[in-house]
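Fold it.
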Amino acid sequence: MTLPTGKYLIRNKGFDSFVQRAAHEDHSLLPKPIVSIASSWTEGVSPGGAPAFSKNRQVFASLFEEVDEGVRWCLTNAPDVSGKDVYIIDNPVTKEGWVLPENEAGTQVACGLLIVGPSEPPFFPPNQLWIITPVD
């Protein structure tokens, strides 16, 4: 699925945690980790337009507009989940996707094989589901 260009809030459904680049990062041009933040603090939550990619099974944002890390993230509506803005974020080539491993502020978003429950429609654990809403 393709979302219109714009700014979005990304929140993990399982832990109700927003994710963004870390609030305190080094000043280098190295990739920046995508981490969870306290759900009560949402001011300034924005990916900043930086493309995300996975490296060493973790998700990072690149400071360069044109980064070719071989990742084209696919947003797929999670079937039979309450809310129309609930997605899984995965790489259709590797079948790996975004996972928030624990409910603690500062936890880096992981990229791993997604667990899909054998049901119809398929079941996804809540820490693999993402609520993506436009910033008004």
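The domain at 8-134 is CATH 2.80.10.50 (Trefoil (Acidic Fibroblast Growth Factor, subunit A)).
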